[in-house]
Amino acid sequence: MNFRAEDPGAVQFGNFINYYQFHSAEDRIALIPSDVWLTPAEPQAYNESPYLVLDVGCNAGDVTQLLLPYLSNHLNREVQVLAIDIDPTLIKRAQENNKSPQKIEFSCVDIMHDDLSNIDTFLKAQNATKFDVVCCFSITMWIHLNHGDQGLQDFLTKCSSIAKLLVIEPQPWKCYRTAVRRMRRSANESFPNFDKLKWTMSIEDDIRQFLENHLDLRMIHETVPTKWMRRIWFYRHRLDKLKTSAT
């Protein structure tokens, strides 16, 4: 099906083949701060071990490949990235275009269903139990639509359990309506859990409250809105010695 230039089409899991034509990777990287990646307990001099990144829902890897030099330059430290996506075609494209194969590993993983052995293997190879940062850019809606309220809560719990720093870019409710409308128009069907959702119009507040009240996380930074009107949140566990940033 052909779509207008401003319409990326409809997909079930957010695995748009032309995603970065509509959401610039450079624009997203330009918004992220440089001073939230380490806590005071992890000074700049602490760089003997690599800084570990998990990029969930990496699509074809454009943001991933920009994030690597950004972090390397700001941290003055080796960075190792595991980037995963549910779509094998997108992962194949990311692997073929990987400019830093010694630093970035792209892997086809369904974080909701797979056994996550790739993630465990990556961490064990680095002698680590957690990632320094887990990035979830514009993926919460797709988890929510396909796995419901409980599935989204499970996803957030899973990501926070393996992250020292959790980066979340949630989609607002209007994005849900757009995704459902496009799916109905193109495939004459909807998402299986859409009509069952209880987290709806206040989805951003629902996610925020779950992170803070149920997972005991604390927001340390919130970016200004992206061009597509989404904010990127940075969270750490409350028990960590936090480096605060203006929100």
Features of the shown structure:
single chain; 247 residues; alpha/beta; seven-stranded mixed sheet; globular; disordered N terminus; disordered C terminus
Task: Furnish the topology, listing elements before pairings.
Elements: H1 25-31, E1 51-56, H2 62-75, E2 79-85, H3 88-96, E3 104-108, H4 117-125, E4 131-137, H5 140-161, E5 163-169, H6 173-187, H7 203-214, E6 217-222, E7 233-237
Parallel strand pairs: 1-2, 1-4, 2-3, 4-5
Antiparallel strand pairs: 5-7, 6-7
Query: Over the alpha carbons, how many angstroms does the gyration radius reach?
Result: 18 Å
**Structural class of the secondary elements?**
alpha/beta
**Uncertain parts:** 1-7, 241-247
Which percent range fits the helix content?
Answer: 25-40%
* Overall 3D form: globular
Task: Report what the structure shows.
The chain has helices at residues 25-31, 62-75, 88-96, 117-125, 140-161, 173-187, 203-214; strands at 51-56, 79-85, 104-108, 131-137, 163-169, 217-222, 233-237. α1 (25-31) runs parallel beside α2. It has seven helices and seven strands, in the order αβαβαβαβαβααββ. It is α/β, with parallel strands linked by helices and 247 residues long.
